[in-house]
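Working notes for the structural subgroup meeting. M.R. asked for a predicted model of this chain before we commit to crystallization trials. I am recording the input and output together here so anyone reviewing the notebook later can reproduce the run.

Input as submitted:
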Amino acid sequence: MKLGKILAGYGTASLVQGATGLLSVPLLIAVLGQRGFASWSLLEPIIAIAAAIALLGAHHGHLHAIVGGRMSVVQSYSLFFRRGAVPAVMVSAGVGAAAATLLGFEPISWEALALAALFLQEAMILLMQFQARALSQAVTYAATIWIRSGLILATLLAAKRLGLALSLQSYVLVALFVSAAALLFVSVGRRAQIKAAFSEREKSHGATTRHIAYGMPLVLASVLSAIVATGDRYVVDGMMSRDELPAYVVMAKLGGALSFASAPINLWWPVARHRHSADKDGGHVFFRAVTPVLFAYYIVAAGALWVACGLLVGRYAPGVAGFDPNALLILLVGGVALGMSAPLSIGTLAPGQTHWTIVAVALSALAGLCSAVLLIPTYGYRGAASATLIAQLVNLVANYMLSQRVQPIALYSQNLLITGICGSALLAGLWMCSYRLPLQIALLFVVVLLFAFLLRREVKILIERA
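Returned structure, recorded in token form:
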């Protein structure tokens, strides 16, 4: 996969998806109200989790098999329709009932049915996106996100312009319609493959079991990762007033904008890891070069985002009180640690080793939950942000240690250490120069030039081998 395709396809998809997540916040507050926005913020992570669980992890196995040339897209569809459709419906229905209960609806109601349908549609879209990633069809992958994001923003803008106040139930129906439109788009583009899948007889009855065995640990790890990334909002909701949740979710959304930087990397990394592990040196040169480059990349992104958020937050979420720039900075540092977990997960992505990711993220989730319970009552928002940072650091260290145990690669280098020192100095300098925009921009510029000079060889390797 060429770096230009990654930037053009995955990069723009990540940019659009992240921008939609950010731009939709003030619109959701205006259309749903602060309490409705708080309830939607509790539902939002469940949608992604439910879609992955509904597939039982088979989508990860399909990606690995397609990349390795052992499966076609037609075979991928065939396995899902013949072996995975019924479990997907059952899981979606169960999670839909649980989510409805969490939101204050009846577990057996039209709201629960709508949520179940939404989860099932998202599962199908997820499977198709993994197929596109495996085939390096970055534009196909991105087009689904462009359509969904455009429809969401258009609907919210129209509702705000018309002065409509939507209930949470109404917005769930909007999300269901948007998901259906995105699924229809992908299905029309692949109608010949889907038709062929229905007529193809499955040749390997053990394929589904193998794919679930490979992918389910990754799904469980992603569920625990979602708990680490978004669990703090549930603890805040439980230990603080529901009226205080919107301000923290706003900070979490702003901190989550670092996903602009991490999402294309996370989409590209599994495929790159599989390919470069087959290098003559086991990928040693490539992995050693990637680590400090991505570290510098995330540090600069976090610093720039913190500066921008401090200037724009008043316009971004008017009427939501409680914004704490220091809490946001802590969340961004946690985002750097989260981003670096992917390039350090080399051995744990190998076939038969994905279960180790569960161990790492379980430790992280436990550390985050315990820290949140201890810190939030005393320190409020900063306590919640600190708990998230602790969880991400535990995840990073555990991933590295477990990965090295499976596939030892000497990732440490002098430039990695210098990058960390410069990054710490950058964030400290930005904090000391708070609200002095010219000084902050100058500091960012100097550090970027320093990183470019220090890591020039690593950047060259990355570009040549990406």
